[in-house]
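thread: overnight batch results

M.L. [08:02]
morning all. the overnight job finished for the chain we discussed friday. pasting input first so we're all looking at the same thing
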Amino acid sequence: MTTTKLKTIRPLKHAGEFLNPALVEYAVISITMPDGYVPRHHRLIDYGVPKEAIRHLSVTSRGRLTLESGCYIESIELAEQFAEKLTVLFSKRHYRYVYKMKIEINVSDRTNFTTTKKTKDSEAIKKFIHCN
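M.L. [08:03]
and the structure it wrote out:
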C-alpha cells in the first residue's frame, strides 16, 4: 500500500478565483490496484482483461470503491484526513497490500455541478470521519 500526499499548502480555488471565472478546483482520491483484487462487481476478468492489469478507481464519501467520479473534496486537508481514515478501513480488506492511493487536484468548468457536489460530498466525508 502506498499513499501519495500533495506537497502544496495553498487552498483550493473556488469559482471566480481563476482568470476564467467558470473554473473551480477540487480534490479527489484515486485508487490503483490489479484487476484481480478489485471487488468482484467491478472486475473485468470476464471480458478477457488479465488479473495483473492495473485498474483506476475512485472512492465514494462512504469509503466504497467506484468506477465513477467518486467524491469531490473541498480542501487538501480534508482529503488527507479522509485518506488516513481510508487507510485504516482498507487495512481490513483483501487488497490491503496491493493498492496505491493518491490525492489529485482537478479543475472543472462545470461550476454549479462541481460546487454543489464538492459541498455535499465534503459534508458527508466530515460525518464519515467523525463517526468512524
